Amino acid sequence: MALRFTSSSSFSRSNILSPHKTTLLQPSFSINHHLRRRNDAVSFPKSCEWRAMKVSACVKLEEEEKSTSLKEWGKVSAVLFDMDGVLCNSEEPSRKAAVDVFAELGVQCTPEDFAPFTGTGEANFLGGVAKVKGVEGFDAEAAKKRFFEIYLDKYAKPNSGIGFPGALELITQCKNSGLKVAVASSADRVKVDANLAAAGLPLSLFDAIVSADAFENLKPAPDIFLAASGNLNVPPSECVVIEDAVAGVQAAKAAKMRCVAVTTTLPEENFVSAGPSFIRKDIGSVSLKDILTGDSGFNNDKIQGHQNNNFSMQTLPELLKERADNSQVLDTPASDNFLSAMQYASPNAIWNLVFGVNSPFGEKEGESQSGRVQQFIDYIADLEARGSTRIVPEFPSKLDWLNTSPLKFCRDLKGKVVLLDFWTYCCINCLHVLPDLEFLEKKYKEMQFVVVGVHSAKFDIEKDSEAIHNAILCYNNLTQ
Fold it and tell me: Phi and psi for 362 in degrees, rounded to 5?
């Protein structure tokens, strides 16, 4: 069965492929079930009109979104710093000390073997690798003792300079701004004290220091962060955590705290499933403004797509206008079709168009499709929980998304209705134009199932489940 989208009025215009109550003039679509007929094409404003309309609307929406994000971030009264990999450049030395421990046991390891167990406490850090390597009769406590002996003797001598640049400055700025500061680490206290001394960070800098010694459940359990919050007498909702490990980000979220992830230990993509509030390169890249305002979602390296791209939101209106007025965008039928589809793009989509984004996740050979699906799931969860989201998942360009998960048809769909939600697959990371409808017809004309399209959003901020429900009802009636 083939599918055609036309300008007929068989069904409610508000439910099929048309956003609800937008601030722009929206052409409406509905499904024509008289599949043998070809109606006249839908007419759109000229490309120059769309450029002016879209630039004006998106600038306004970006400004409103920024203001909303600042309000949503909420009050901040305390900052909880993880130690290894955040304040101290100690993750690699720790792994080397662990390699030395296993070498004494006659087990060959590499520093990379310990990476999956980063931030989970020394017992699990060592015990996890022992389990992987099949070390029989492994004594975690004895291994920890030897680990600390090697680590303190070889890698953490006082004032040896293992502190990350910018750590002391950020701590001082936080304290001068009236924020409380604490160390909240899954390491034992002996290592915490040694690392802070090696980094030149006096214990007196901190209002509280919480280590793993007194806890049975370490990160990703929230216990350490909740204890730090209690010691500071600050509600969890007013705490911001800075972490370098996935387990740490998970612990912060479990404690209902906001979290900044830094990529000193793990690459950025490793944090996608954990869902930090935003991501920075290292602690020197975290500003006091980031902590107090939540970055507003606009300076995130992930959204920028390039670490050297230092545009600020103050320049966005001018940049949008410059791109819209650029003579390289020609008034041709092709550009008219492209620009008319821009009405469905979100403000984040315009941001991606202006500044560019990283290579779509899962599009490169060898990259995990399941990881990209998880990225999408995290996006939706964040959107439903907060009403907005900071990190936009990246999907393959143009029509490629039709052939990749989660839209890859891997089994017999005879007699089924396949619902394509164009808000989900178009607007969140456009500018992917609405799918070429002739392409859809040709692609699925021999298939024994029906493809249904719906634009299920009240523009960019609210998912409209009723639109999906009504679309399914309409198509159930058509196919009976």
Answer: 85, -5
Distance from C-alpha of 187 to C-alpha of 245, rounded to nearest angstrom: 13
Burial class for 307, CB neighbours closer than 10 Å (0-12, 13-18, 19+): exposed
Residue 274 has pLDDT above 80, yes or no: yes
Tens digit of each residue's pLDDT (9 = 90 or more) over 355-365: 444 433 444 44
Q: Which residue has the tokens 């202006």?
A: 354
Q: Catalytic one among 40, 82, 213, 301? A: 82
Query: How many angstroms separate the CA atoms of 165 and 284, rounded?
Result: 6
- How confident is the model over 148-172, as a mean pLDDT? 90
- Which structure tokens are listed for 384? 């439903």
419 confidence band (pLDDT: 50, 70, 90) = low
On whether residue 245 sits in a domain, the answer given is yes
CA torsion 181-71-456-348 (nearest 10°) is -70
Q: Is 82 a catalytic residue?
A: yes
User: Does residue 101 belong to any structural domain of this protein?
Assistant: yes
Helices (H) and strands (E) in the chain, counts: 17, 10
Please confirm, yes or no, whether 282 is among the known catalytic residues.
no
Task: Report the pLDDT value the prediction gives residue 345, as an integer from 0 to 100.
Answer: 46
Q: What is the mean pLDDT of residues 155-169?
A: 89
Burial 104-134 (b: 16+ CB within 10 A, else e): ebebebeeebbeebbbbbbbbbbbbbbeeee
For residue 303, which of 208, 394, 406, 403 has the smallest C-alpha distance?
A: 394
308 found inside a domain: no
Judgement on whether residues 54 and 131 belong to the same structural domain of the protein: no
DSSP secondary structure of 116-143:
GGTTS-HHHHHHHHHHHHT-TT--HHHH
Q: How confident is the model at residue 295 (pLDDT cuts 50, 70, 90)?
A: low
391 and 438, same domain (yes or no) = yes
Catalytic residue among 40, 84, 378, 460: 84
Residues 376 and 464 in one domain: yes
pLDDT at residue 66, as a whole number: 52
Q: pTM for the complete prediction?
A: 0.48
* Residue span of the structural domain in which 114 resides: 91-154
State the total domains in the chain.
3
DSSP state of 262: E
Average confidence score pLDDT of the chain: 67
What's the per-residue H, E or C state across 28-53?
A: CCEECCCCCCCCCCCCCCCHHHHHHH
AA letter at 166: G
The first and second tokens of residue 327, run together, are 């003579």
